[in-house]
Specification:
Layout: E1 4-7, H1 12-16, E2 22-28, E3 31-37, E4 40-44, E5 47-51, H2 57-65, E6 67-72, H3 78-85, H4 94-97, E7 102-103, E8 112-113, E9 118-129, E10 134-146, E11 155-159, E12 162-165
Antiparallel strand pairs: 1-10, 2-3, 2-6, 4-5, 5-10, 6-9, 7-8, 9-10, 11-12
Length: about 180
């Protein structure tokens, strides 16, 4: 199990972009759930939007609890990520079914997943739920990530059962102007 350390919430963006597949864990009353999620986006340095289909068991858990943990799995969890996406939390406790460690949150009651290399504990900021688009907007309240490797391999869904693993990181720090983020 990777050892996670507290990091500034502002670093959430560095771990979520450019869109790795994540495992969203929730709990409400005596039920907890995990779903595989590829539909998410950064909306601000501490705001994350997720699309959670209303027919998904995690939709009801997220609405009921108003909390979740966005967990970032590594390449070693790829088969588990796919299998989690192929079943419903309404059928079984996915933590038990897939041998995952439920980790108590520091800022929310939803459990994190111990085997993931980053976790972002979130509270519901607002919802934009229409007939076609159940968008949940989450505010990250606590963020945790491994120190090494700095950029672990992530899983990216390509569609039709194909995935991309990791990516090459390059620096353009000498060209980057952080002051332009506020313009």
């Amino acid at each position: 199990m990777p050892r996670l350390h507290p990091i500034p919430v502002e670093q959430t963006r560095a771990h979520l972009e450019p869109g790795p597949v994540v495992l969203l864990s929730t709990a409400h009353r005596s039920t907890r759930g995990i779903m595989t999620l590829g539909w998410h986006m950064m909306l601000g340095y501490d705001l994350v939007g997720t699309y959670i289909w209303a027919a998904n068991a995690s939709h009801a858990l997220a609405r009921g609890s108003r909390q979740c943990v966005i967990n970032v799995p590594g390449e070693d969890l790829l088969d588990t990520v796919v299998r989690i996406g192929n079943c419903s939390s309404a059928e079984a406790d996915k933590f038990e079914r897939f041998g995952l460690t439920a980790v108590e949150g520091s800022a929310v009651d939803a459990p994190g997943i111990g085997e993931c290399h980053a976790r972002f504990e979130c509270e519901l900021h607002e919802t934009r739920i229409t007939a076609d688009y159940p968008l949940f907007v989450w505010r990250v309240r606590a963020a945790h990530a491994v120190k090494r490797p700095r950029w672990p391999s992530t899983v990216h869904y390509r569609g039709d059962g194909a995935f991309k693993i990791g990516e090459r990181n390059v620096s353009r720090r000498r060209l980057f102007r952080p002051d332009m983020l506020e313009s």
